[in-house]
Amino acid sequence: MEKLNLSNQIGDFWEWFNLNLPLLESVIQTGGHPKTDDIVGILDQHVLGMGKIKWEIGNPQPNQFSFTLSPNNERDLLKVTKAIISEAPQAGGWTFFYAAQATGALQLQVYDHNMDVQNIDANPWRVVLTDADAGKCELTLEAANIQHLDEDTQMIAADLVLTSLLGEEEKINQLAGLELVFELEKSDEAYCFPLTELPQNL
């Protein structure tokens, strides 16, 4: 994507955002707002027009709002989301993020391939780190309690947990790859540690 074109798209997006700020806040705060579908559609149009980027708006506290972009774990898109958020307006009560933030939550819910809700508890999970190129690490993740899930849901759950623990930017910058197993090799037992200790071991 040409820089000039991206710059124009970013400018157009934030101009629309500013003009519709009261409506955005009303939609976030009001369940079943009649303009919700319109707002979601326009946000999709703007954000996806700049790349394969996810977005989320939230209301973490009364009269406080958040807008978060996710580069889908892609380093090149992280540059794009940073460029977008660098132009964010000074809007009272709003916080803007260019990547999914760490929450520390290890108990999450995901939808499986049947769209059924599955509860994930990552507290018992263990990891092994192996050095990789460019100062990154390969991560072997032992998650025995999700063996019953389909493969796609297993990987989605693992990715959500790692994002919750590290934050998306740290995950992109520090991890070169992920191998998901249900039981560690005997040779790895001496090097493993609880998942909860991952942030300080990277």
Explain what the structure shows:
The chain has 2 domains: 3-97, no CATH class; 107-201, GMP Synthetase, Chain A, domain 3, CATH 3.30.300. The protein has 7 helices and 9 strands; from the N terminus they run H-H-H-E-E-H-E-E-E-E-E-H-H-E-E-H. The chain has helices spanning 3-19, 21-29, 36-48, 75-86, 151-166, 168-174, 198-201, and strands spanning 54-61, 64-70, 94-97, 107-111, 117-121, 126-131, 137-142, 175-181, 193-194. Helix 5 crosses helix 6. The chain is globular. The model has no long low-confidence stretch (mean pLDDT 94).
Main pleated-sheet profile: 4 strands, mixed
In whole angstroms, the N-to-C terminal distance is 33 Å
Low-confidence spans: none
**What's the total count of β strands?**
9
Q: How are the strands ordered across the major sheet?
A: 8-7-6-9
Order of helices and strands: HHHEEHEEEEEHHEEH
Q: What class, by secondary structure content?
A: alpha/beta
State the helicity in percent bands.
25-40%
Beta strand % = 15-25%
**Rough outline:** globular
DSSP helix count?
Answer: 7
How many independent structural domains? 2
Summarize the helices and strands and which ones pair or pack.
Blueprint: H1 3-19, H2 21-29, H3 36-48, E1 54-61, E2 64-70, H4 75-86, E3 94-97, E4 107-111, E5 117-121, E6 126-131, E7 137-142, H5 151-166, H6 168-174, E8 175-181, E9 193-194, H7 198-201
Parallel strand pairs: 2-3, 7-8
Antiparallel strand pairs: 1-2, 4-5, 6-7, 6-9
Helix pairs in contact: 5-6
